[in-house]
Write a structure and sequence with these properties.
By secondary structure, the protein is α+β, with helices and mostly antiparallel strands. The protein has a domain of 64 residues. It is built from 2 helices and 4 strands.
Length: 102
């Protein structure tokens, strides 16, 4: 007959792995969020990210180049909510007709 302590440990470890896996799947990485934001802003399906400095990333794609700055706010003692803010003059970004902003 199997040892009850080993079965309980296996169930707890298995549940922890499932919980961790689900949490990771729901939360895209900062890089994924920035890439999605840049694709939208630049109206470009292929973008390349370049580390510039702490919290600053350059993005190039479709003949355009822009810079994003990460802005974070504390939610509680452990968590923070971070967003990528376009930090480039809009004249560097093309509209849907391919015309650069004014």
């Amino acid at each position: 007959m199997p040892d009850l302590a080993h079965i309980s440990t296996a169930v707890v470890v298995g549940a922890s792995i499932v919980t961790i896996g689900c949490a990771g799947a729901k939360s895209p990485s900062d890089t994924d969020r920035l890439r999605a934001r840049a694709k939208f802003d630049l109206q470009c399906d292929e973008v390349h990210l370049y580390y510039v400095d702490e919290g600053v990333t350059g993005v190039r794609g479709c003949g355009q180049q822009v810079t994003y700055v990460q802005s974070c706010r504390k939610i509680d003692a452990v968590d923070e909510d971070c967003k990528w803010i376009l930090n480039t003059d809009s004249s560097h970004v093309r509209d849907s007709n391919g015309v650069r902003g004014q």
